[in-house]
Amino acid sequence: MVKKQKILFICTYNSVRSQMAEAIINSRYSEKFHADSAGLIPGGVDPYAISALNMRGIDTSGLTSKSIGRISDRKYSMIIFLCENARMRAHYLPVSDRTECRLVSLPPAEGGDPVLAYSRLADILINMFETDPLFN
């Protein structure tokens, strides 16, 4: 049996990108990885992020916004920053074998429709995981 790699996704607020990444990895790549997410200043899980994931059949149960301090005693195979602000401001991190950056921005809400923007973000993250050698 292959040991799962533990991944930590970090963003500033742990409300959108890192939450979505955690759910996608745990839903679609659970045979190889276990993902957690955290932020510098937890801001609660964004309901549009939940909606975009649920529309794709991705399980969002159990997602909660967490601070890095709350999980600082854990060890990870990889820590992946999804935003530059968090990468620049994270002064302490849990122990990890590797740190990576995969900077992902929230697409603009065309016509003021946030659902569309979050849906595009979900697709961007899914595509990133499908094509990035780190996950394959």
TrEMBL record:
<dbReference type="GO" id="GO:0046685">
    <property type="term" value="P:response to arsenic-containing substance"/>
</dbReference>
<keyword id="KW-0059">Arsenical resistance</keyword>
<feature type="domain" description="Phosphotyrosine protein phosphatase I">
    <location>
        <begin position="5"/>
        <end position="131"/>
    </location>
</feature>
<dbReference type="InterPro" id="IPR036196">
    <property type="entry name" value="Ptyr_pPase_sf"/>
</dbReference>
<dbReference type="Pfam" id="PF01451">
    <property type="entry name" value="LMWPc"/>
</dbReference>
<dbReference type="InterPro" id="IPR023485">
    <property type="entry name" value="Ptyr_pPase"/>
</dbReference>
<protein>
    <submittedName>
        <fullName>Protein tyrosine phosphatase</fullName>
    </submittedName>
</protein>
